[in-house]
Amino acid sequence: MRPGAAGTAPRIRVLVVDDQALIRRGMSLLLSVEPDMEVVGQAADGVEAVEMAADLRPDVVLMDLHMPRKGGVAATREITLLLPHTRVLVLTTLDTEEAVFDAVRAGAHAYLVKDASEDELLETVRAVHRGEFRLTAQIARKVMDQFRLLVSRSEDVRASAQVTGPAPSAIAPGAGQARAADGPADTLSEKEERILNLIAEGKSNKQIAVTVFLAEGTVKNYVSRIMEKLHANTRTELAVISVRQRHEE
Question: What's the pTM value of the predicted model, to 2 decimals?
């Protein structure tokens, strides 16, 4: 039995965004034949994507990156800020470290290149809708490399600040580096480590609260504190950091 064929759960509402009409239509056709999915709209660029997302409030946005008027990264950032419950799945030909990292920082829950198989795409849509974060092994390595570079730079800035004192004019702009110069405030407590691991598993704040026996509001405070300590802007970044840490252990 195909996933989603049984039961009466609402179908996953998907917005397809790509500047190439043939790809938009092909992706829409592929998704529409699935019993648990429904394509609610097609957008040709980032401007249309934001407008249609605000109007249609899809569950998942299938997002290309390189598009006219407004690119996928900017559109992803606006959509995730405007619609916290809408998940963005990036599907693009771009697999450079910069493109991947920018998409993750913008709030994307998953990143696939267009040579992914149909089954992989469909399963990723379902996983993202469940609240999971998905990166292929190749993409995850690229993101890890970028985080290693950021961590290395932050450590260099901290070491320099300890020896010579903070020198703002010598530090490149960036919230992460600025916080790193303030001192070693990025050590997580045992409880914070536990919550970080649950975030990496794709758990929502409500699910985490049940697991660790805390109020949901308390979990939100923990998540904010963890983001501040690890210089992360999104839960996706936290998930990638957790994966990186386990990979290095």
Answer: 0.61
